[in-house]
Amino acid sequence: MGVPAPLPGVAQSFSFSRDGKHFLLDGKPFQIRSGEMHPARIPVEYWRHRILMAKAMGMNCIAIYVMWNYHEASPGVFDFHSGNRDIGAFIQLCQQEGMWVLLRPGPYICAEWDLGGIPSYLLSYPDIELRTDSARDSRYMSAVAGYIRELGPRIKPLLVSHGGPILMIQIENEFGSYARNPAYLEELRQLWLQEGIQGPFYTEDGIKQLEQNRTTVTGGAIALSNGNAEQIAAVRRKFPTVPAMAGEVYPGWLTHWGDETFKGTDVDLSSTLDAFMQRKQSFNLYVIHGGTSFGFYAGANVDDRSGEYQPDITSYDYAAPISEQGAATSKYMRYRGIIAGYLSTPLPEPPQPVPTISRTGSDALMPARWASIWDNLPAALPAAQTVHPQAFEMYGQTSGFVLYRKRLPGYRGGVLDIAQVHDYATVFVGGQYVGGVSRALMPERCAQPLNVMRHAPLEVPRVPLPPDGDVLLEILVEGMGRINYGHAMIDRKGILEPVTLQDVEGSSDTLIGWEVFLLPMDSAFIANLRPVCANPNKGGLFFKATLRLDALGDTYLDMRDWTKGVVWVNGHNLGRYWNIGPQRRLYCPAPWLKQGDNEIVIFDLHQLEAKPIELACTLS
């Protein structure tokens, strides 16, 4: 079995056989052996390395998601150039390395990514409907049309019919798990056609959802989530005119904060891969390399049975064959051997591993207290916007934190009811921390010392009244990942309902007239922090360390002795840490480091004293 590769600038044809049995490349049957990775989760400097890792495992194709909200954070402002956002450059790299591409541009992708890739600015409409046709919600589809108009011209020259490596474009994602709406899927297809992109197209669904909701598009191939050889055969019987492939074959699984351990480590796809290769069936490993949900982009789920909110960890290692750091795992070597056994030409050797850095014991970093969020507040929003607390999206904020502040005249203590906090809040009365509220379930060992409740009324103690008789109530809210799957995706962040305070005599008041401070914690915010800390005993502190390096390498910052917060290295947001685990270490890629002094900034919601931070070579 040879390895046909894309020829730059040479138009080729990719199509389906008339009987739907085969994918055809230049008229000949072609097996797609795809491994999925996401440019948004990989530093641009490592793109080629990860592509070559997939090629050396026996893949001939790379499947990629395009995260719409990674490219359009605010309405009409697109970024397809900075950092790792140049999708065209990634696709061209695939072609340079002899790899084909399956493009999965959404508009919805799931992917354990914030709001499934849909821009959160759409949630500023109180009655918005997502993932539906123009007749149901023209605002959503108008935004989708703008996205496809922007992406389409970047994609068209890279189609196989124009001499590029893109074989197929997916229409939406797993829509059968959400609804049955043929008009919506056809409207999406028409938007691509209007850009001069004729396909080929395909859809992705679980086999039961596909059969129930018939979520296919005209002339489009079918990809199966969690598919295997038997399911491909079953779908071919029910949909005999188009080919089918296993579109998401899971070598691991996603992990949530609070899980006991990393998920998917015990998965073995050996027999599944052997069957694909023996029958020459097409497949895509989701994911061959997961990478990292840097910054605030990790998504969340809702447990089907309990309804619990389950935010995803920062790492997207996924127990994939290629680790978060880009290393070949034991799975990688095992699967590479299986695939190689069916190929007529030897596989290339994997690229050299990236060097790593470790520092333990006395060589560990020792940060120092540096600044306080309370001494770095921006101007409050106008009072007209803040009669009641509103969600982040209503203030035009995508992610980070928001501080809600209210003056309480004649305060005497009582019970505070913050009915809807999305997703984690620390509460202060008179400058003193009195407890927290967490939407996600926390182990008691972590919740109890911090007096963190789960949407339960929070008893707030009496504090000495200042001379003016007014006590400050401050609620600092962290928005964590938006739900990325299912029917609970309208997941706004912040305080979503009025806050009430029941005083010691049982009288309850709805608190109105708030000061609101937007704290996006973006690179500009961090760069402009003032090194002031007037009250070192009030949680919400920044710490800083200097990492001096003579040689560069990848590393992991071990945050096991810290509580809950975010880490920046030289201005790059590594993502969230949380002591409920199971993730304890945050991945820092070598390209974000430099020889000499490197600035490490930590923001912790609870920590008042700095603790050492060791550097490690692996996630765990």
UniProtKB/TrEMBL annotation:
Domain Beta-galactosidase 1-like first all-beta, by residue range, is: 389-516
Record domain Glycoside hydrolase 35 catalytic: where: 23-339
Instruction: Name one molecular function that GO assigns to this entry.
Output: beta-galactosidase activity
| Broad class of enzyme this protein falls into | hydrolase
Pfam families noted in UniProt: BetaGal_ABD_1, BetaGal_gal-bd, Glyco_hydro_35
As recorded in UniProt, its EC number(s) are 3.2.1.23
Where do the coiled-coil regions begin and end?
A: none
Q: Name one GO biological process term.
A: carbohydrate metabolic process
Q: Which residues form the active site?
A: 174, 248
* Residue span(s) of domain Beta-galactosidase galactose-binding: 541-598
Write the record's keywords in alphabetical order, separated by commas: Glycosidase, Hydrolase
Catalytic reaction equation(s): Hydrolysis of terminal non-reducing beta-D-galactose residues in beta-D-galactosides
The similarity comment for this entry is: Belongs to the glycosyl hydrolase 35 family.
- Record protein name field: Beta-galactosidase
